[in-house]
Task: inverse folding
């Protein structure tokens, strides 16, 4: 059992129980002490006008600071990456004007204010895009990327994200940073060796890259092979159990979290969809999930629970080393909300981009309906992730909140 599974999933799934069938979960505002919002200022609006006012000058570049992994140094450096190495699904996040950012923040606050006419008036991706970058500016950015040899895979409806592909040589030429091989703790990686740079003319609308390295978020669970194992200290309260740890079953969790009264009242997650964001499918599809439910009596007690593997606008990733994490996530979800629809939402990772981030972006930028609850159970150190990487997750969760998805992320693992 992982710490993050208990910390992140328990909280989100308890919310599912409180939310009865037919009601929509919502993203809670992090600040409850704001002054009452002036509704006239927070209705959806058209994008600001173009903010790129100068022609691109190849002699005038500016850096995107804080976007080099701390591991990229002379000690770990091994060699340059081959110029023709394909680098697919690079995610370039754009940035709003301060006025747009303030207007969006106010609108999101109003979504959770019961006294607001905007209460629970969730946005569509296109409506969210009304707070995005002007089409004229996006066109200038994509034109420049194409002029550098990159292929534009898509511009997302949120008007805040461009997915493009190229190779290491094009990255070095366009962004003036070399892609290199590193060896870190016995593992090989690729990463940019210095902060990327962009034309100064484009700087008003570019936030940064989700990543230019393959240090992706990690599954943090520690597997055990037995239901009982050594390592727990004895105590006077449990004198008959010295030194023995006991793995928890769904029934233990039901007792610990006092879920049985909810089950008895007919609240067990029915009518809710819980999306577990992954970069892998589960091994054998639904086979392990069904075996888990059968072994612990969930299939017979709560037969309406379902499991689906979803690949939003991407090919299926198949299984990889993270499939154990995915199995834990979907099984813990059904253990707490046994009547809910459980979805394993996954896309394959790109060369430098975590598949879970691609999957969540594709999900929230597609046509609904959307899951009420989303869980992300992978860990990465924010200090090492860089300004662009942290902004990528912030912007993604911000959009999810505006569209009525409650996103829960594990914490304290890395």
Result:
């Amino acid at each position: 059992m992982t710490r993050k599974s208990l910390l992140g999933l328990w909280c989100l799934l308890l919310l599912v129980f409180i939310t009865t069938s037919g009601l929509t979960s919502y993203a809670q505002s992090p600040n409850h002490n704001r002054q009452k919002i002036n509704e006239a200022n927070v209705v959806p609006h058209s994008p600001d006008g173009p903010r790129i006012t100068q022609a691109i000058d190849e002699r005038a570049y500016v850096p995107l600071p804080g976007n080099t992994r701390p591991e990229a140094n002379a000690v770990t450096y091994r060699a340059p990456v081959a110029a023709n190495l394909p680098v697919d699904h690079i995610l370039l996040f754009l940035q709003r004007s301060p006025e747009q950012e303030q207007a969006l923040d106010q609108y999101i606050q109003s979504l959770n204010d019961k006294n607001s006419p905007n209460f629970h008036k969730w946005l569509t991706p296109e409506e969210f895009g009304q707070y995005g970058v002007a089409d004229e500016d996006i066109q200038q950015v994509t034109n420049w990327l194409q002029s550098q040899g990159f292929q534009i895979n898509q511009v997302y409806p949120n008007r805040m994200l461009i997915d493009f592909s190229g190779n290491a040589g094009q990255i070095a030429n366009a962004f003036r940073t070399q892609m290199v091989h590193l060896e870190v703790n016995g593992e090989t990686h690729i990463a940019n060796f210095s902060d990327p740079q962009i034309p100064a003319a484009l700087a008003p609308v570019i936030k940064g890259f989700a990543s230019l390295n393959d240090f992706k978020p990690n599954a943090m669970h520690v597997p055990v092979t037995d239901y009982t194992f050594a390592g727990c200290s004895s105590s006077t309260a449990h004198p008959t159990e010295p030194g023995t740890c006991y793995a928890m079953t769904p029934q233990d969790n039901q007792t610990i979290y006092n879920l049985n009264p909810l089950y008895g009242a007919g609240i067990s997650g029915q009518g809710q969809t819980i999306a577990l964001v992954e970069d892998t499918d589960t091994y054998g599809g639904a086979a392990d999930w069904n075996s888990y439910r059968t072994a612990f009596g969930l299939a017979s007690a709560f037969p309406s629970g379902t499991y689906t593997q979803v690949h939003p606008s991407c090919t299926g990733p198949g299984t990889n080393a993270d499939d154990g994490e995915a199995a834990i996530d979907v099984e813990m979800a059904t253990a707490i909300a046994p009547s809910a629809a459980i979805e394993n939402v996954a896309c394959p990772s790109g060369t430098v981009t975590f598949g879970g981030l691609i999957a969540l972006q594709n999900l929230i930028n597609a046509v609904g309906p959307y899951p009420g609850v989303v869980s992300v159970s992978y860990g990465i150190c924010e200090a090492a992730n860089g300004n662009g990487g942290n902004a990528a997750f912030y912007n993604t969760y911000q959009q999810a909140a505006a569209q009525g998805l409650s996103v829960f992320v594990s914490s304290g693992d890395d």
